[in-house]
Amino acid sequence: MTELRDGPDPASVAATFARLPAPAILESVAGHRVYGRWSLWAGDPLDVLIVEQEYSGDPFEVLAARLARYPHIENPTGLPFAGGWIGYISYEAGARLEHVFPTQPAAASLPLVRMALYDTAALYDHHADRWYLIAVDWPRDAGLHRPAARERLAELRALLRSAASGENRAPIPSAHMLDTGVWDGAPSADWTRAEYVARVLAAKEYIAAGDVYQVNLTQRFRTRTAAAPLQLYLALRLANPADYAAFLAWDDQAVISSSPELFLDLHHGRVITRPIKGTRPRTGDRHLDALRRRELIHSEKDRAELNMIIDLLRNDLGRVCEVGSIRVLSAGDLETHPTVFHRVATITGRLRADRDAVDLLRATCPGGSITGAPKIRAMQIIDELEAVQRGVYCGSIGYLGLDGGMAMNIAIRTMILDRGVVHVHAGGAIVADSDPHDEYEETLAKAAGMFRALQESRAEWLSPAPV
Question: Catalytic: which of 27, 92, 204, 277?
């Protein structure tokens, strides 16, 4: 590890790393005072794990076996990441753990799981305004034919110097360009408003029958685009800044995410999860937004939604955490995001000594905030009511460190680029007193930042260029 003085503006680094093979960016853009501290850039992975959609076995066994091929690396740096696997685990990978297998068609052709091993990366500490460069110094007996760590660090320094000098810099949109950016109707939806409302009513019938207390129902939009993956990411990064943004690209596919939700953080045995439940759209009008904030704070419906998920996650964590270690630090802070207000809970626990990051994933995937409760029945109803599989959306994106640490988001506010087609999903929790038309409007509010990014990526100032 080395500290880099006079590093580049973090906003200028994405274009440089996007030119590397299989770039991976995990970026904190919103600037949360506690959870938005670190950003990470990497490229040119040492190994890639792909579990295809057609695989019929347990994808988590495949993941654990691949991770076991590489040595555990101690991390004395104090940094959250010192080399490891970056990628995603799809919603369906977690659902099959509970024997819920999809009956709907796949939304896109991306794999069930894709994780790549990066042994060199740049990290930026937003709180301290400092850059750190890391390179894994592999043991000699690991049998890996990699350039020496010092050589890879030198190459990384050169990359960041090129970013600082403006080489390979992509055009970055300015805020005023997005001020008038609204969805122009180009993306097509799987359902009309009436069809979505009908599915909300169907979900409420299951709730009334006692099958479930809550179901997370989503819909998909899609459109074709000539924009490069990086252009979409830069536009989304500005339109919907978030603490768990991600950019993963390979071949003619990409995952472009700007998620506000932390799924799992595991470091030094401590587990943190921060589920989101309860939403109000922002208007830009100071008085109306203040009213909506108060509505969300005092809404018994939204409080009940979140409490259900808190109980679900406590149960999931209880499978792998020490008895008595699970604590609810917050039952629902109100947070302001670019297009919406959210209620967010914080739950912690201590992982048992005989469990690891993959065990934690197996116990919790997919995240309870995007399924409903009880979890298994909610996932069965989701498969029945939704038009397509979710794929990466509502799965999780992040890293599994060689030191045993992990940080994964919930892949909401996520765009999937598959051979020139962009898929955008959005949804919300349905409970007994949900208003179907309000639920439809909530999906549009949550997708608004992605729609704006799609529109702006088509503008002339972001002319398509290969990355």
Answer: 277
- How far lies 330's CA from each of 184, 273, 310, 334, 345, in Å? 39, 11, 10, 10, 5
For residue range 109-123, list pLDDT tens digits in order: 999 999 999 999 999
204 assigned to active site:
no
Residue found by looking up tokens 């740096």 in the block? 77
| Residue 3 falls in the annotated catalytic set | no
- Crossing angle of helices 436-457 and 229-239, in 10° steps, is 130
Determine contact, residues 380/398, Cβ cutoff 8 Å.
no
Angle at 295 between CA 294 and CA 297, to 5 degrees: 60
pLDDT digits (tens, 9 = 90+) for 391-422: 999 999 999 999 999 999 999 999 999 999 99
Residue of 92, 261, 305, 456 with catalytic role? 261
Q: Which two tokens stand for residue 348?
A: 């912690």
Please report the sign of the dihedral spanned by the C-alpha atoms of residue 459, residue 460, residue 464, residue 467: negative
Closest CA to 276 of 109, 80, 411, 450: 411
What is the pTM for the complete model shown? Answer: 0.91
**CA angle, corner 110, sides to 244 and 358, nearest 5?**
55
